[in-house]
Write a structure and sequence with these properties.
two-stranded antiparallel ribbon; 8 helices; 4% strand; mainly alpha; 2 strands; 186 residues
Length: 186
């Protein structure tokens, strides 16, 4: 896999790559430490899955502690979350006039959502994430970050009124799906 293919979309920007690095540390802080703790019991894999299943029930104090640890290690963390989310929203809607307002996602909201989304990821649940190459880990992390951002749109984005028409004004009745380019030239 070429690096130009790996870092696409929001991850072409330095702030999003910084967020990616912070998320890698967050995965180690939360899930790898949890996996290491489970190694001391008779059936570590099933115990690990049981504890991962309980992530949605964690109290705010656990997420606050994780935010503190990540923010101490990565002082840019909150800024990286906010800038990455805003850029994701602008890219997601493709037209700046469709987005009226983007409410910042706090570091706490991101860590909580990221941890919960990660707890449902098969690579985490099977503990294979930590055996992956760095490139593969980053690919999984990018997908998880995008999933968190997509799930957060309803709570953080206010769209401009589109005049009651769900049809994009740039697409006319004479346009057909056969005329749509899927990103390939030619």
């Amino acid at each position: 896999m070429q690096s130009s293919c790996l870092y696409t979309g929001i991850f072409l920007h330095e702030f999003a790559v910084s967020l990616l690095q912070a998320c890698q540390a967050l995965m180690a802080n939360v899930f790898e430490d949890l996996l290491c703790m489970c190694q001391r019991v008779s059936d570590p894999k099933s115990r690990f899955v049981h504890l991962v299943d309980r992530v949605p029930d964690w109290g705010d104090e656990i997420f606050e502690r994780e935010v503190g640890a990540i923010s101490a290690a990565f002082p840019f963390f909150e800024d990286a979350v906010q800038r990455s989310f805003e850029h994701f929203v602008r890219s997601f809607f493709r037209r700046s006039d469709r987005v009226r307002e983007v409410r910042n996602m706090s570091a706490f909201e991101f860590v909580q959502a990221f941890t919960q989304v990660s707890s449902r990821c098969s690579f985490v649940r099977e503990a294979s994430f930590f055996d992956m190459s760095l490139v593969d880990q980053r690919g999984v992390l990018m997908d998880l970050i995008r999933a968190v951002f997509r799930a957060s749109i309803d709570d953080h984005v206010m769209l401009a009124d589109c005049g009651g028409s769900p049809v994009d004004p740039e697409v006319g009745p004479s346009d057909s799906i056969s005329n749509v380019c899927l990103g390939e030239e030619g």
